[in-house]
Amino acid sequence: MRNMKRFALLTAAFAALLALMPAAALAQIVELGATKTPVVAPTCPRGATGSNCTIILTQVTALESVRDGVTYPTTVKKAGYLVAWTVGLSRLSSNNQTAHNAVHYLDSLYGGNTEAGISVLKSVGSKSLHRWELVAQSPIVHLQPWLGDVVQFPLATPLPVKAGEVVALTVPTWAAVLSIDLPTSSFAYRQSRGANCSKPAVTEQAQQTIGETTPYSCDYPGTRVEYSATEVLSPAVPRNQIHARRHP
To answer: Which of 84, 105, 216 is nearest to 150 (CA)?
Structure first.
């Protein structure tokens, strides 16, 4: 009992000490891409069926250019590390057999199972050219078990990011991640290709080679890509730091 009381007192003292510590000493977490509209699992708009329900992203890297009126919402403001990413995935159908058939069809049409990862991009040249260099990329994740959910994937190895870089969603095969028929002035995204923008990519054009520069010429107003990324900011060096010679 005495040990329990001592533990309780130590715990209380430690909690009080934490409360007195300046907030700046704690790690700051930012959700890149977060706006007033949360990430959701997409659904087909009422009346849209079959080929008219264009919620499937295929074989490209996608970069949100406008979300809730915010330009390039996944832009890194301060240096840090990406530690997780979130994606909203459509179930495709409330009917299990219909959903199963749709998954099988998409797998065969777009080169394999539904999968995705995040990419860190850096703008190259004139911004009007919409050219982006791939700086870093997370492992690609198999998504099928989570169709119909919003899911967050932690990164075993955090990705370093710098101010001005942006986070995109890379889909080597296919992923049901698009919310469509939204206000064109408030939502838009771009794809990593420069031609045949009116049709889905039928060959793999996802940006996956580090150092590669790709034009993002295909622009899609009125569509939202359901993803975000979690960044832990690098701590700022305090002004009142204690200076001492480092020992070898």
So the answer is: 84
The DSSP result for 13-35, as a single string, is: HHHHHHHHS-GGGSPPEEEET--
Residue 171 within any structural domain of the chain: yes
What whole-number distance in Å separates Cα of residue 116 and Cα of residue 227? Answer: 11
- Between these two residues, 236 and 215, which has the higher pLDDT value? 215
Q: Which stretch of DSSP H or E encloses residue 153?
A: strand 150-161
State residue 133 phi and psi, 5-degree precision.
Answer: -100, 135
Residue 114 lies in a domain: yes
Considering its fold, how many domains does the chain have in total? 1
The secondary structure element, H or E, covering residue 108 is helix 96-109
CB 62 within 8 A of CB 169: yes
CA distance 111 to 6: 61
Would you say residue 116 lies in a domain?
A: yes
pLDDT tens profile 31-74: 999 999 999 999 987 765 555 578 999 999 999 999 999 999 99
Instruction: Write out the residue range of the structural domain in which residue 176 sits.
Output: 26-47+55-233
